[in-house]
Amino acid sequence: MTAPVQRHLALLVSAAGAMIVALDGTILLVAQPSLQRHLDASVQQIQWTSTGYLVAVAALLVIAGRFGDRYGHPRLLLVGVLGFGAASAGIALAPTVGWVIVLRTVQGGFGALLQPAMLALLRQTFPADRLSMPIAIRTSAIAVAAGSGPILGGVLVEHLGWRAVFWVNVPIAFVIAALVLALRTPPPGRAYSSRLNLTSAGLLATALAVLVHVLANLPARGWTATPTLLELFAATGIAAVLVRHERRTKHPIVPSAVARSSAVTASMAILLVTTAGLFGTLFTATFYLQDALRLDPLASGLRVLPLTALMVLGAPAAGAALHRYGARRTAITGTVLVVAGIAGLSQLGPTSPWMAMTVAFAVLGAGFAMVMVTATGTVVGDAPPGYAGVVGGLKQTAVNIGPTLGIAVAASTSGPATSTMSSTLLVLAALAALGLLPALYLPSRPTQQEGCDTTAVCAAPTATPQATPAHHEKR
């Protein structure tokens, strides 16, 4: 199979894998009320069907990326997608809500295995100066899946019941697994020691799990509750011990070449705050549309459709902008648009024309597409091949924690009245605006490099010899 065919196959696998994860996340929201009624579950139990998944994903993403760098990303992706499908089938057959919670947590673990691998496949198969468009296509695919999830979920739940939303993952998972088996990629690099530091892995998993757990429970507890403060203190303490241990060990779980990369760190920070702003805004807007404007779920979804449409259409344009103007300008422009979209929504009320909301959501979607494509392209492109899994895991960690943070902020700042979104969305706009600072640390020059066909050299011209394995220097 020729290299161009392998690249297209890798892009198809990466986009399809990202779509099944995005679809699962949004389709579940529609199924939860029916699941609660049929299994006679409490609100807290239903919350844990999401929280258990999030905790497992956040705790294992970086570790999964580390395993992918060691054993090969197609292998990890194959295990992850088959396990994800099997767990979905188990949930569809679950007799009690307790089994649903356990299997959702297991599903999150397998989801953590496949997410870093999907990005690493692109890094291994595409030259760094050609990454922006594949990542843009992948971003558009995610937007399509996330946007169609509530609609598809509504149809399935209405006609087939809540179990159908989990059965839908099974055939998709097997198709992706078949595509992975047909994929051929270079062998995994040995940019750093293959030994996994169990102490670092345990500390990292524990710190992230505690952080996600406390954020997921903030809407119910509040910021000043004793359990919240204790868990935040615990997460901070564990993180401090992890940093100290990573500096002293010979085998850090996040290699020093990655930890010292300002582009990777800045991209993660941008993704964290902008995804927090976006999902916090969607959380707030959903209640506003249904409680204040008295719209049904389908009508509410149609109001938000311009956001999805502009993400789909804007991602390729963002890829072209990244290629032409560089990461810094593109990320700053995207962040400004995100802030402007959220701020525009904050000024709307029940008497505002529908076109004003349409424009605000469209601006928000276009801006987020630019941020997502730029930050993802920078993270993946900046990583030498031997580090692709770890860097992909770090990126996905930011993308998974950001929405949890945004919803926690939105829920804790919303008042009992839903006639206006002003105060909550202004806080979220300010949170998203924090992304302008790390955007200044992104590369200012475009990634286009004429005649460059060596991914390691194109992606990291200042990388150390240890960061670029000799057998990956030629494609």
Describe this structure in words.
By secondary structure, this protein is mostly helical. The protein has helices at residues 3-39, 43-71, 73-92, 97-125, 132-160, 164-167, 169-182, 198-216, 218-221, 226-248, 256-259, 262-292, 297-325, 327-346, 354-382, 388-413, 422-433, 436-439, 455-459. Helix 2 (43-71) packs parallel to helix 4 (97-125), helix 8 (198-216) runs antiparallel to helix 10 (226-248) and helix 13 crosses helix 15 (354-382). The chain is globular. It starts with a helix and ends in a 16-residue tail after the last helix. Residues 448-475 have low confidence and may be disordered.
Strand count, sense and barrel status of the largest sheet are: none
List how many beta strands DSSP finds. Answer: 0
Counting DSSP H or I runs of 4 or more residues, the number of helices is 19
Beta-strand level of the residues, as a percent range?
under 5%
Low-confidence stretches: 448-475
Report the end-to-end length measured between terminal Cα atoms: 14 Å
User: Which structural category fits the helices and strands?
Assistant: mainly alpha
The radius of gyration over CA amounts to 21 Å
Instruction: Label the overall shape.
Output: globular
Helix content: over 70%
**N-to-C series of helices and strands:** HHHHHHHHHHHHHHHHHHH
Mean pLDDT: 81
Main attributes of the structure:
mainly alpha, disordered C terminus
Sum this structure up briefly.
This protein has 475 residues and is an all-alpha fold. It is 77% helix and 0% strand. The chain has helices at 3-39, 43-71, 73-92, 97-125, 132-160, 164-167, 169-182, 198-216, 218-221, 226-248, 256-259, 262-292, 297-325, 327-346, 354-382, 388-413, 422-433, 436-439, 455-459.
